[in-house]
Task: structure prediction
Amino acid sequence: MSLWEYANPKKFLTTSERVLPYVWAVSLACIAVGLVWGFFFTPDDYRQGSTVKIIYLHVPAALMAINGWLMMLVASLIWVVRRHHVSALAARAAAPVGATMTVIALVTGAIWGQPMWGTWWAWDPRLTSFLILFLFYLGYMALWEAIDNPDTAADLTSVLCLVGSVFAILSRYAVNFWNQGLHQGASVMRAAAITGSDTEEKVSNVFFVPLMVCIVGFVLLFIALVLYRTGTEIRSRRIRALMARERAGA
Result:
């Protein structure tokens, strides 16, 4: 079975309708378990107190904000190379989801940062690139709405997606590129947290395990929302095509 079979709208709709209930169920279950476990059954951090528990919302949302844009990039490149309409519609469908994840990450980051840094916002390299990424999300959605021809809109938004990917990468690796700034370095994917080695841990297992449950839940939630919205975009495109055909016939 070839992956390109799902470029057929009918095949995509049939498959997504079949798997969506399971993805919804597992994603919501993981998020519920992870948040309840993290907020109510983990101890306060010895430095940050209970404030650290916002990690269960902030980190998964930030990961999906960045990876959501990269998913849009891959879908846009598929459109440019192979001209599959489903890929362009999937990129369009993912944009509002990614933008929402970016807002959640920015707001929870501000709530987390205020007691830690003494300020709600700082022009830190990672924070600044994250804000610019959000503006690219808004620009991407606005560009789709501003152009009537869907193929032209897909072409132009693909170019915008390529440019915005620079800021998606900066949002992920800004701390590695610049040693300055308030934001800490990567602290989740740490071998010591998984293997229990003697090297310094940045995230203890007591926080790491429920955090991973939340991350899995957010990933599946993103997939469910994109599948659902892509199906909606396909149906909307069909309706517009039928209406245009009727007007032409009249």
About this structure: Residues 51-238 form one domain. The longest helix spans residues 205-249. DSSP finds seven helices and no strands in the chain. The helical segments are 9-40, 55-82, 85-117, 125-146, 150-177, 191-195, 205-249.
